[in-house]
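dumping this here before i forget
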Amino acid sequence: MAEPIRSTKETAFDPLEFLWNGRRLLVGITLLGLIAGIVATLVITPLYRSEVILFPAITNSVSKALLSEQSTGRDDILALGDEEDAEQLLQILNSDIVRDRASTRFDLMKVYKIKPDGEHRNSELRDAYEGHVKFQYTKFGSVSVEVMDAEPQRAADMANFISAQVDSVWNAMAHERAFKGYNIVKDGVEKLTAEIGQIEDSMSVLRSLGVQDYHTQAERYNEYLGAAIVKGDQRAIDAFDERFKVLAKYGGAYVTLQDRQFNEVKRLSALRLKLEQANADLHSDLPHKFTVNDAYPADRKSYPVWWLLIPGFTLAAFIMAVVLLAVNERISRIRLDHGR
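structure:
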């Protein structure tokens, strides 16, 4: 005898009926999720958020900005930097030296409960630091320094301290390069000054021999010699012949030294200008950022957010309950089919 055909009502899935049949499990697990969310908001250590907003400066060289006569728009010390300058600022903020200074200053090993003698203490410190400290390039072209900490005052102090390290680290790097550049230019100035001194000594010897100014002397001697010839003054003519012999013997050397002195003095003037610029860069403490606002202690916690955490736990518990009901229903049907 053929099996009776099952009615559509028996095989169709009714979601309302499905939820109603499992209402006890749904309500129970959902309530457990609600309670877990409430407990979590009370148990989780609250974190307070502090933030510093920085704008990058557009110039890194005070000598180009203030001492150069051929300055451009990028040498304006009052101009804000672009995206490339902001990326450089972010690289400084993310550097190991800034993290190490902050760790030492605020004893972050103790704050983040990391064992100082642990095998992976450095990795744990880096992960904890990155979890509490964030740097971000904003849509307004600024850089945000955000710190989350269990103590609002420490969060504000850390944010201000980290932002202050930008100039310290940047100036230290620039000082190392500027110091070497300054010494190179200084050595050049000293060497060129010594060479000019030697030229002046040589010219002094030639002056003692009677060559004061070759071109002027030759012009005047020719003028006076012509007058002596017209007058027939043989003694004057012989005297000027002797002077011309001195000019002929030493005049070429004097002209060479005079031209060389002129060129070297010109070079020395340019080098001294570079030395002044290098000295300005060496002793510069020009800020590399603009601070829009400093961090201040928050008066309310930023994490956890109860109105997100409690509904989240509750919704997750409800979904889990529905999944459990669906799995249980599927298992029941499989058993029923195999039992026939």
